[in-house]
Amino acid sequence: MSKFILECKNLIKRYGDLDVDVLKGVDLNISVGERVAIMGASGSGKSTLLHLLGGLDKPTSGEVVLNGINLNTVGGSKLAKLRNQSLGFIYQAHHLLGEFTVLENVAMPLLIGNESVKNAKLRATELLKRVGLGHRIEHKPGELSGGERQRAAVARALINKPALVLADEPTGNLDSKTADAVYQLMLELNQELQVSFLVVTHDHELASKLGKVLHMEDGLIL
Ligand SMILES: Nc1ncnc2c1ncn2[C@@H]1O[C@H](COP(=O)(O)OP(=O)(O)OP(=O)(O)O)[C@@H](O)[C@H]1O
Ligand SMILES: [Mg+2]
């Protein structure tokens, strides 16, 4: 077994028939239990990189190896299963499902993984309490504030105790106290379960707390 949870080599991404590469050959390795921040100007390719690393989109060339599996070699339900088991996503936009309650949204990854409804709801409730949403579990996402939705999205990303969490500005919409609670939750999971984190952020304080800080510029990690 590789000591890296994630490896990527010479990742290049070009959208459609545009003639500029958005990613120009990114190399990146993340060790088990490592916490890495990515900073960089708007448009430098951070979200694009996260999408490729998470198997949400395919690179134009290059490869991503997650937990020893080359994502270029898997697709469909196998890729979906690998993502569900190994990854947690916190997107720049929250992507909660509007027709389900907060509790159901957070429990969803466990239910997809065949956990019993009772256990899934118990664990979701526990995690929602930890992000300060214990009083909002029966609400629909549309009835929450932006920061509350973001915290629910964080809880959903962490519920499976994934090996790696990919987070795109997880604390971007939060006040400093809530942002700190979210960071503490990440840190606890990192220390208890060796969960690795790759976090895109514009927040210098969060980046420095994570430990390793990478800088992205014009499609490359410097
Ligand atoms: N689906 C797409 N089709 C075409 N171009 C795209 C697409 N998605 C992103 N881009 C372009 O790729 C570049 C990088 O975008 P990306 O979203 O990765 O930036 P970012 O670093 O996450 O920026 P921000 O900090 O603003 O979120 C941008 O110039 C953007 O316009
Ligand atoms: Mg982005």
What is this structure, in a nutshell?
The chain has helices at 46-53, 76-86, 102-112, 117-130, 146-158, 176-193, 204-210; strands spanning 4-13, 23-31, 35-40, 61-66, 69-70, 87-90, 164-168, 196-200, 212-217, 220-221. 37% of the residues lie in helices and 25% in strands.
Protein model, in words:
By secondary structure, the chain is of the alpha/beta class. The protein has one domain (34-51, 75-221): P-loop containing nucleotide triphosphate hydrolases (Rossmann fold, 3-Layer(aba) Sandwich), CATH 3.40.50.300. Helices cover 37% and strands 25% of the residues. The protein is built from seven helices and ten strands. The chain has helices at 46-53, 76-86, 102-112, 117-130, 146-158, 176-193, 204-210, and strands at 4-13, 23-31, 35-40, 61-66, 69-70, 87-90, 164-168, 196-200, 212-217, 220-221. The radius of gyration is 17 Å and the shape is globular. Magnesium ion is lined by residues 46-47, 92, 168.
